[in-house]
Amino acid sequence: MTKFKLLFTLSIIVPILMLLTFLSYYNRFPTGDDAWFAEETYWLLKDGVIRSEFFRGLLGWEKQLFVSHKLFLCFGSIMMLIGGSSLYVLKLTSLLFLALLVFLFKGYIAHRQLEKTSLYIVLFLLFSNTLIVKMSFEYRPEVMMMTLGFASYLLIQYQQKYLVALGGVLSGMALLCHLNGIIYIIAGFFMFIFSGKKIKALIFIVFASLTSIFYFYDIWQANGFDVWLYQFRNDPATQNAFGLVNKLKVMLSFPSIFFKSPQEMAISILLISFCWTYRKKLNELPRNLIVYAIVLVISFWLITKRASGLYEMLFIPIMMTFIIELFGLIEDKPSFKLSKPILFAFFLYFVIGFVGIIQLIHKIHSRPFLPDKYAALRKFIPAKSKGLVPLQFFFNEYENHESLLCFENFDFQLAQSTLKADTESLANWARKNNVKFILFDYKNNKANFFPKPREVLKGYQLSYFDGDFAVYVELKNM
């Protein structure tokens, strides 16, 4: 394919992909993570501390949650202050940082004097990546973290020391979004070390450290280092990764991050195709890019506590940079023509992304909008009472009740006890926590300890059932 044909094709495909992406935002359903972080943001805005009533009784999270995505939640609290606790206001957080990422790539392409086609390739890679499309409208820290990390990388390519310092600040901010952001600090520092720029390495690490230290501000203020260590060590999401054997298992499974499913596999295959096809050009790539990328991957391999495909997000901007840099090396040739393996990899990337986005849109519009459905159940639920609910019940309902617990809380506490994961244990736990009603969502959040449809639940009576949802109310409230 010639350069003109490639640019013409991309100029048609990219607007279509962007349209599909924005269609996937319309009526986008709330995820458990949306609600999980929204509740933490709610209490940060209301009480000035990050905590959770959903997880009352778990590691002291109802008092203060020290192991959290602090800068991300602070930014979310600003969004919530401006627009309220609306689902879409919070989802907008990730979209804003995706827009910033596009702006950063536009600036990088101009700085590197790459041609217009490179920007179209960036847009193509972003908007036909199912993982990006999903996470760009979800209230999670990954998009914010990877954008800050990439911004840090761009700044430390300049000679000016004040920009190196600012790059250090941004890498520290990435850590404040999520502790995994430390990989951007490690990669930036070793990039300078391997290039022999020790003064810049010192400037970078000092400003990164001074920024990162704010992670411990709330811990220091509450004199809660022991509590932070306890929460970190016993975090339900990662406690199984501690210990030598478990850590080795995670390290051995690390490559699966890039090949977990087709949505992660697509960009990995495209990058491998580029690197193999143009392997003779690899030594012409910026040395800083190669060193930074290698250290980024190795550092995450050493620190990660689980091999989740979601973590590929942290590397996507650098993977894309490799692709457009290699493309820039070959497009200058008068005889430019993309090889068949590269064209096939692009085609595969497009098909995987297109199908994934269509499936996402279908999933969104094939079921009722959850907040609306929950609102319709209000007449079957005791007002201003304590409930056990799905996390997504947060949106539009949280302030209507005395307090709410979530099923994940029970599930996590179950894992730390000798109780069976059954309906009886759930009912006993609910009564022990003075729960007045329980809302089961069989369609979106079913767990193995849920009662069978219309099954008797000790201490509770069925108030509503429609096949998808069931409401049980404490007997004395009937």
Topology overview:
Blueprint: H1 3-25, H2 32-47, H3 70-83, H4 87-111, H5 116-127, H6 130-135, H7 142-155, H8 161-177, H9 182-194, H10 198-212, H11 217-221, H12 225-233, H13 244-252, H14 262-277, H15 287-303, H16 316-331, H17 340-365, H18 370-376, E1 386-389, E2 403-406, H19 407-415, H20 423-432, E3 437-441, E4 460-465, E5 469-474
Parallel strand pairs: 1-2, 1-3
Antiparallel strand pairs: 3-5, 4-5
Overview features:
5% strand
Question: Can you describe this structure in just a few lines?
Answer:
The protein is mostly helical and 478 residues long. It contains 20 helices and five strands. It has helices spanning 3-25, 32-47, 70-83, 87-111, 116-127, 130-135, 142-155, 161-177, 182-194, 198-212, 217-221, 225-233, 244-252, 262-277, 287-303, 316-331, 340-365, 370-376, 407-415, 423-432; strands at 386-389, 403-406, 437-441, 460-465, 469-474.
Describe this structure in words.
With 478 residues, the protein is mainly alpha-helical. 58% of the residues lie in helices and 5% in strands. The protein contains 20 helices and five strands. Strands 2-1-3-5-4 form a five-stranded mixed sheet. A hairpin with a 3-residue loop joins strand 4 and strand 5 (469-474). Helix 3 (70-83) crosses helix 4 and helix 14 packs antiparallel against helix 17 (340-365). The longest helix is centred in the C-terminal third of the chain and has 26 residues, at 340-365. It is globular and about 80 Å long. The relative contact order is 0.11.
